[in-house]
TrEMBL record, chains A, B, C:
NCBIfam families for this protein: PRK09355.1
Transmembrane segments: none
Sites where the protein binds substrate: 53, 210
Gene: thiM
Protein name: Hydroxyethylthiazole kinase
Catalytic activity: 5-(2-hydroxyethyl)-4-methylthiazole + ATP = 4-methyl-5-(2-phosphooxyethyl)-thiazole + ADP + H(+)
Pathway terms, separated by semicolons: Cofactor biosynthesis; thiamine diphosphate biosynthesis; 4-methyl-5-(2-phosphoethyl)-thiazole from 5-(2-hydroxyethyl)-4-methylthiazole: step 1/1
InterPro entries in alphabetical order: Hyethyz_kinase, Ribokinase-like
Length: 284, 284, 284
């Protein structure tokens, strides 16, 4: 059973999650698309986690037993990689290991849409996507997605995100203001839904490829470090937003933003989170 | 039927093509090699297009119907990716969607050479390669290619390039001075061949991997935006040359050239094209 | 038969190896993991070699006959890539072409461990890994590897490395101080084992992904240029260490270290090697 926290994440719990990430350096197994794989590994290393991209069917389940968390990203699936995803996710589910689903293109392309639907049955800890992908995954209608970079307003994805909470403990939709919805359970066992609006970041983030994919991997790293999917998603979004804010004034464009963003992931610390995190919490 | 322009591309049509690219942000489906895939996506994003690397046989044809253009690059083909290439290219051809062939290694390695020959039957809008690759693809003799980085003088590839115009509306051979040949049709329906020599760029461009591959993707992006393969190739070559010229004085070597080149792709605009493009046009 | 040198590598032979690399620009065939493939190609280009990532079963053996050396890296093997590895390595072995094995994860994951054991029978010229991987490959017990980034002390891997000299002419274990062991044969045909301890480098090197993988490819490039595996490993380790030392003072973190490290690989020259290489040689 995934952990459902008693409180929604706050700046304090995000700072504690960051300290746990740095102390543990969790190992994250990424089954991801070919575009993101190098950058994602560098993002995890810069943030303080340890990446391993074991994504063949021969090894995926065995490695899920070693890893602290598993990320499944549907960006460029192959037949063999999809078999590996099923095996890794079954292993993670049966071992109680957190795993994160990034359903790129699932609402646009039927083959991977079917794969995503299957994987949902294994109860991802967190589902992360852009607004169009969250809408597409929930099957709530046309997402007007243009390719994979589309950004519908995350606020428009909230009904879809809440629907997906029947599978996951937390669902996040990235955009100008990231929207993260998750479950909270009080001492009487009553479950409520909370929304975090996380502001900040940089307009250059969507100008570099795999920034969203790498955010998904960082959610998995935080989930490994904390066991709490809602807090993990919040902490990863804040971490990425602050790193982007560090990078933007140093960048001359999207190219020079790339190394500065990795530097920023390395630099984020408790005092920066305390000073700069923009997190608004709403009970739904 | 692919569009054959009435005039060869000029600086004015290249500026108009750039404006169209920026206005439309065309979606480009890339079936490309593993070395290039991340950099190519960043090149497309920096230039103003939208990348999607859908390259499995289950989805390639379906996505070609969504994309504005398709790029096929033979750098690291697998059996499954080749099946996806065939399907994507058939879909593009039957839908009248532009597509670009980058025949890396086709003259050196028989298996992919056979694949390239098959794909030619689906009439690429543009064929882009270095001089050795264009010579190899045309089967005009030994290309003296050393691996995939060889640069025979593009001028030596002109007979091969002209031979390949029976398949494509435009063929480009990259090198110190890029050579782009294409068809022009006058008001009486008479077709003539024109050569553009595009100078500029930087000696650091061939020192970074996938710069040529990414140029191929940018040709596809411009073809999606303009519908005119000859103009697309010219505009993409000019765009890359100017971005490289922006980057070179900022670089300490090939490593720092990489982010600066992406910044340059973002910065190229009408006034820079007007001031700096070096395009010489010759009727053959 | 692989060349066994009469003397262990010295700074003079490393300088000569570097001159040979720059003069020849050897073509290196890399069958490597998806995380490393782009960075590895840029590392080879920056250092002065020419990369080609031909890793499908249809072409791998044929290309090994063209390449100057072959690198096999087990980071993200697929069934098809493993078939290509077997074919490339058989071709390299039968042609007397140098090849390098990087056994990532071979001690942790049984499937690739079996593949690594098979490949050893084809006598790699050099085996390169971190300490945990060398220990894992030799089967000398548990390596306490955490994922693929672990760094046991290379000194602890020396018994394992010496065991592996029955397969290879040289074995290197990377770490804070790299340990490179190799065979030397005197004029009477007597073989002895020598250890080089190579110091320097930067604490930022393990903070970027694929730095070790790329070092393996550079070993292959030097082996192509010199024919001497022991010297190749020593030269590649020194080249990487000096490039990292060039990069570190220019970097604000792991992100900005990346381009600066590539610049450093380009800048290393005879005078820098003479002034800065830290190589200690010990007869075992």
């Amino acid at each position: 059973m995934p952990l459902i926290p008693q409180q929604p994440p706050s700046v304090d719990t995000i700072i504690a999650a960051h300290a746990a990430l740095r102390a543990q350096g969790p190992l994250v197994q990424c089954l991801t698309n070919t575009v993101s794989v190098n950058f994602m590994a560098n993002v995890l290393l810069a943030a303080g986690a340890s990446p391993a991209m074991v994504d063949n069917p021969e090894e995926a389940a065995g490695f899920a037993a070693i890893a602290g968390a598993v990320l499944v990203n549907l960006g460029t699936p192959t037949d063999a990689q999809v078999r590996a995803m099923r095996l890794a996710v079954q292993a993670a589910h049966s071992l109680g290991r957190p795993w994160v689903l990034d359903p790129i293109g699932a609402g646009v392309l039927p083959w991977r849409g079917q794969v995503a639907a299957e994987l949902l049955a294994q109860r991802p800890t967190v589902i992360r996507g852009n607004a169009a992908e969250i809408i597409g995954l929930a099957g709530l209608g046309n997402s007007q997605a243009k390719g994979f970079d589309s950004s519908s307003d995350p606020a428009d994805a909230m009904p879809a995100a809440i629907t997906l909470l029947k599978y996951a403990t937390c669902v996040s939709a990235s955009g100008a203001i990231d929207h993260v919805v998750g479950k909270v359970q009080n001492e009487h066992g009553e479950v409520s839904h909370h929304l975090l609006r996380i502001a900040g970041g940089s307009a250059l983030l969507p100008r570099i490829t795999a920034s969203g994919c790498s955010l998904g991997a960082l959610v998995a790293a935080y989930a490994a470090a904390t066991g709490d999917g809602f807090c993990a998603a919040a902490a990863a979004h804040v971490h990425v937003a602050l790193a982007a804010e560090y990078a933007e004034p140093q960048a001359q464009g999207p190219g020079s933003f790339l190394p500065a963003f990795l530097d920023g992931l390395d630099r984020v610390d408790a005092s920066l989170i305390r000073a700069k995190a923009q997190v608004e919490s709403v009970r739904l």
